[in-house]
Each structure stands twice: as structure tokens, then as C-alpha cells.
Write a structure and sequence with these properties.
single chain, mainly beta, six-stranded mixed β-sheet, five-stranded mixed β-sheet, disordered N terminus, binds (dicuprio-$l^{3}-sulfanyl)-sulfanyl-copper, binds dinuclear copper ion, binds calcium ion
Length: 643
Amino acid sequence: MTQTHDSDDGPTDTTHSTDVDLEIDAASERDPLFARIPRRDFMKAGMAAGAVGAMGSLAGCTGILDRDGSVSIDDVDTDVAPGDLDEYYAFLSGGHSGEVRVYGVPSMRQLMRIPVFSKESARGYGYDDETRELLEESGGYTWGDVHHPRVSQTDNEYDGRWLFVNDKANGRLARIDLTYFETDAIVDLPNQQGTHGACALMPDTKYIFGVGEFRVPMPNDGRDLDDPEEYTSVLSAVDPETMNPVFDVLVDGNMDNADSGKDGRWFFGTCYNSEEAVTESEMTRSDTDYVQAFDIPAIEDAVENGDYEEIDGVPVVDGTKDSSLNGGDSPIVHYIDVPSNPHGVTVTPDGSYAIASGKLDNTCSVIDIARLDEVDDLTDAIVGQPELGMGPLHTRYDDRGHAYTSLFIDSQVVKWDIERAVDSEPGSDEAVVDRIDVHYSPGHLNTSQSYTADPRGDWLISLNKHSMDRFLPVGPTFPVNDQLIYIGDDEEGMQLVKDTPGHPEPHDATIVHRDNIEPASIYDPDDLELDPIGLDETGIEREDGRVHVKMYNQRNHFGHDTVTVEEGDEVTITTTNIESAENIVHSLAIPQYDINVKTAPQETREVTFTADKPGVYWMYCAYFCSALHLEMRSRLLVEPTED
Ligand code: RUQ
Ligand code: CUA
Ligand code: CA
């Protein structure tokens, strides 16, 4: 989604304007997407704003026209006092920074950053041998584009084991171990470029799915370069334990976002490029695109029966419309026509509906999952299509039957009643119960425990792409704005609680109750590959130009005061933090050798380098650990070779 705006535009607060035409003109100037929405939809948007304005005067409902974006938070206990802990973890994707960020909710304090696809010196990630190999063996790229963090579940409840994220840039999925809050596996999906959605099959995280957005030839080895009809897009299933690909499903069109049903059978994806086109104007030509509904057990049967072609080591099952596997009574992929270019799709907490957001259409489509087996015409499974506002992108849930949809163009979050949407006419806005302005242009939003069968319905984070006037200016690259909204009071309506500036660029978040996560505070050496180096196990071993330095580290020294090697030696240093007290982290930094390896208590890491620069190098601890932190240093002497 790109947006252009004139620098003197300022924020366009559409809900405060009474002149509908004016607000549309301002918005269409800012957003080329806007200009493409048919005029009738502009009128509908105007009408919708009017209708909600009227509703705002009803007793007990805070109208949007009263909102100025700085709602009083008197009634909401949002403060987490110094020394108090948050109730929730929020895992935010880091977009093209290649990392994941951990926030506390409701404080919105940033607690930790977890590097995934990019090196990060403070965590030593990409600097020790193991994490360097992880990055190298998964393609050797220096960055990734993380959009969608999903926490593993057992029985449709977050189980705190793993967090999975995608790399849209290089077609990868990664796994973060939530005991240690660190990346422990990355898989490069062989037949997929532009892995967008990252989701798991529920209720028990049987597979992780990479959702292939970019259509490319398969294999993408130089064939069919300019032959777009030969390009393909696949859904890739990965085993969460081994992180190995299990199967791919070839689809018509492409895939964008996705979500799982709750009972292990259905998996849903959106497709905005049913045109199978390569330009933006062609991709928006058709009036309809699809929601794809994958019947996972039927796909597993096809794999079992050998109904696949193996490409790049992965069984690829043909799920295109013309496939014989889609011919009979139980197709493996259902293609449900929905209005042009849908974006997000999520399944309601009770597993009844898959709700796809319209993006170019002002509605969401509510698909009754049980009807997929019953209807002849799949569009008959669409049982509701509420009019919500302009640019609906993503939808999440509370515990009271409401859905919350982000409106990119209207810069709002709209709250609506799911059953009321089913009961009302398609295109009516009767289901809307509340709207709130956000600042500005929300992509994703998320609510506490939203992907589970049991959302909490108290907090919502709106992840806004633009922040215009919300923060002190910091030059032409603006922070994004992650806003915290309290949704726990249906009478008062949604209340904006906090603005949180963010580094580019979170897309999505998963908000998990702290009871569902059990992080370790020191390492269990049994969980690590390397054997620890204890107090009596230091040593320097030398064999054929290879030097192995074994040393521990603790307050305030390393296991060797001096390490002497020869120019050209290949040196491996194994270092164990032998502290048993929590929170005492050390690092091994070696100047001019580009090394900074972190070790937390009971952690062992290894780093290998060629000692190609003769001289004296002060190996030191870069992690502030104690009063004698500065003194925690030893010499690496690299003796010049004699000619
Ligand atoms: S998708 S908001 Cu990955 Cu909506 Cu970005
Ligand atoms: Cu150890 Cu600073
Ligand atoms: Ca399209």
C-alpha cells in the first residue's frame, strides 16, 4: 500500500468535516487508491458518515463527531506504575527492519527486540557461529520483511511455545523460541517468493503456512521469464517442530493474508490478483477476486495418495480451479467470489465465520463456514456484507460478538456486531456500533487474545502507517504510530489511550496474556548445542593453524587474561557465561575483528574468525555488568608471521 501526500496536507480528519465533497477531494489527492473507487462508493461513504453521526446522538453511544482524538481516560485503568508489570505481551512485527518487537500492554513500553532476519549486535545475533550460520543457510540475506507474528496454540489457546513470522522479501518463515525470546529456526520456502501471511493450522498448530503473494515461475530458474500466465502462487505448509516444508498447494490467482478455522479442517486465504496480472491497473480490473478455502484433510489425502508433483523436494498439490482434485464433490480448494481486491481474512473466535475485508470495497464479507459443504454456489455461503467505511483492511474480535475493522482510507477503526451484520441487508451499515478516529491510515489492528477461541475484549492496538502531527518532527522519515485503544466498555465506546511512535514498520501484532508465556530467566545448558566451559575447563588447543580457545566469562574477567595466536590462524573461541544470578549478561567484543557475542547466564556461544591482523586487541565486555565492567577485558595478541 503506497500513499502519496503533499507535505502541507496535514492530517485529513474525515469525521469532523461536514462537507463530504471536500473531504473526499482531500483524501483522493492523498491516496491514488481513493481515486479509483467508483463514485457511488464516495456517496455511500458520505451517507455512512451521516448515519453514524445521527447514531452518535443516541443515549449511551459516544458519537464520532464528539471525538477529537484525545479521549479522556479517566475511567480506564491504563497506567502501569513504575515497578508494576503489564498484563499482556504484544509481539509486533518489525516490517523491513527484519525483527520482532515485544511491548507490554497496556503500558506500550518496549520490552525487547528480537532480531530475526537481520543481524543485531546488541543481542550478538548474527555474530556467533550458530546464528551466523542460521542466517547464511537460510539464504544469506541481510534483511527480511516481517509482517505477521503468530503465536503457537494448543486447543485454540496460546501455548507460549513459539512465535512464527514471515519474510515477505525472501520467501521465508522463521520460528522464535518463547522460552528464550530468540530466533531458533528459519526455513527458505523453495517454491515461494513473497511469503506474506504467516499462520498456523488450529486448534493445535499442526502446520505453519507461508502464503505466497508474488506469482513467479516454478521453479524460478530463468524459465518463462516474460510469460506471466506460467507464473504460480502456492500455499506452503511447514512442520512447526522440524521447520521443514511438508507440502505446497498451487492456487489460481495469488494469496495475500490468511487465517485458520478452529477445528483443523479449513484454512482461508485472500486473493487480490485473480486476474493473474503483473501491473497494478490489471490487478484491479476484475470486479471480484477470491477467498480461497483450503480443505486441509482433503489436501493431506491427496499427498498421501501421491496426487502431486515433486518440485524442489516438496510435494506440490494442484489446487487450481481446473485441477482434477477440484472436480468432484469434495474439492480441495474452494474459490469464493468476493468484491475486488480483498485484503485481510480472519475466523471468528467461535469458528463460525471467515470474515474478509474489502480494501477496495467498503464492506467485509462474512462467510458462513458450515455452509461451504452445503451450497452449490459458493457465494451463497456469504451471509453478511456490512458497509463499514473506506479501505477496510483487517478485522479482529472481542468476547462479546463484535468485530473491529481497520479502515485505511477513513483512518478509523469501526466496531460492528457480527450477528447483526448477518441479519441485515448486504451493503447496509446497521451492524456498525461505534467508530473511532486513529492517526492515521491504519494497516493492521489487533485485540488481546484475538486469534484464540477466547479473546479478552479489553485492548486493541491500531498499527497506523502515518503519524503526521502526532510527534515531535524528526526529519522526513516519520515514525509510525501504534495506538492503544480501550474496547472494554460497550456503553462508552472505544477510547483512545496512547500514541506510541514506532521504528519502521510494524504491520501486525499478537497480544498474548502474560499467563500464557513462561520465559526462562537463565539458560538451561541442556537446551544448548554447545557444551559449557566451566571454571576448570579453560584451555587453548592448537592444531594445524586452527586454534580453539575455551573460556568462561563472569564478573569481572574472562577465563584467559591473554590469548596468543599467530597471524593467519583460524581461531574459534567458545565462551560460557558461568553466572548463576539472573540478569548478569556479558559479551565478548573484539575490536577491529567485527565481533560482539552476547552470553546471558549459563549461555555458551562460539565464534570463529581468521586472525589476519597482527597486533594487540583488547577483548572486552560490551554489556554493562558490574562496577568493574570496564576492567573486564583481556588481551588477544596476534603475532605477526615471520617472512
Ligand atoms: S498486511 S498492513 Cu502484511 Cu495488511 Cu501489511
Ligand atoms: Cu561483563 Cu560488562
Ligand atoms: Ca483483482
